[in-house]
Automatic annotation (TrEMBL):
It comes from Paenibacillus lemnae. Residues 130-227 bind DNA. GO terms for cellular component: cytosol; protein-DNA complex. Keywords: DNA-binding, Phosphoprotein, Transcription, Transcription regulation, Two-component regulatory system. This is Response regulator transcription factor.
């Protein structure tokens, strides 16, 4: 399962390295991506692509993001729009929101924060799209905050649910303890990273993973969930 499986996102920015960075990260989340390096291209592609969400840079040559946003709304585009800018100016934020944007982020930004904002917008504007996903022997149901494994519902605490969902969404990839702490707990968490070990041990018990073949430990690197 990818956390944004099935979500269609259009990226509009005149900086190729930002497009590449966002495209790679969002594809790993399961998104279908369409790229546009200028406003005219974005307007041309939006109707046939029908994105759920548009990440739109304000400062672009030719047609800026404000005008693109205005024309998208005039064309009855119902995609959520998150605007990006290199300036964190109150006037820009207000103008963008009044033009029809749903959210606003200033560069540089954290990918994790952008991901959280995307998820929030999708849940708000397209309820049901992210509620349930299946991968291998797992089924994740966000409505019930419930994970099923080989047909059996796992008795998980809220934190265990968040941790296992993260591991499933990143299956095949190694997650460091610090990365897990940042995503499952928060950046201000003051505890020791051995709390991750405690929760991993608990999840293994509930999965019957005595041989650690489902949740693997990679010494010095972190943990990886493997699927058959």
């Amino acid at each position: 399962m990818n956390t944004l499986q099935g979500v269609k996102i259009m990226l509009v920015d005149d900086e190729p390295h930002i497009l590449q960075f966002l495209e790679l990260g969002l594809q790993q989340e399961g998104c279908e991506i369409m790229l546009a390096e200028d406003g005219f291209t974005a307007l041309t592609l939006a109707e046939p692509f029908q994105p759920h969400l548009i990440i739109l840079d304000i400062m672009m040559p030719g047609m800026d993001g404000m005008e693109v946003c205005r024309q998208l709304r005039d064309s009855a585009c119902n995609a959520a729009i998150i605007m990006l800018t290199a300036r964190d100016e109150v006037d820009d934020r207000v103008r963008g929101l009044l033009t029809g944007a749903d959210d606003y982020m200033a560069k540089p930004f954290s990918f994790e924060e952008l991901l959280a904002r995307i998820t929030a917008r999708i849940r708000n504007q397209f309820p049901g799209l992210l509620e349930e996903a299946m991968i291998g022997p797992f089924r994740v149901d966000d409505r019930k905050r419930q994970i099923t494994y080989h047909g059996n519902v796992l008795a998980l605490s809220p934190t265990e649910y968040d941790l296992l969902k993260l591991l499933i969404s990143r299956h095949g990839s190694v997650l460091s303890k610090s990365s897990i702490l940042n995503r499952v707990w928060d950046y201000d968490f003051g505890g020791q990273d051995n709390i991750v070990e405690v929760y991993i041990r608990s999840l293994r018990e509930k999965l019957g993973d005595k041989e650690h073949t489902v949740i693997r430990t990679l010494r010095g690197a972190g943990y990886r969930l493997d699927l058959p």
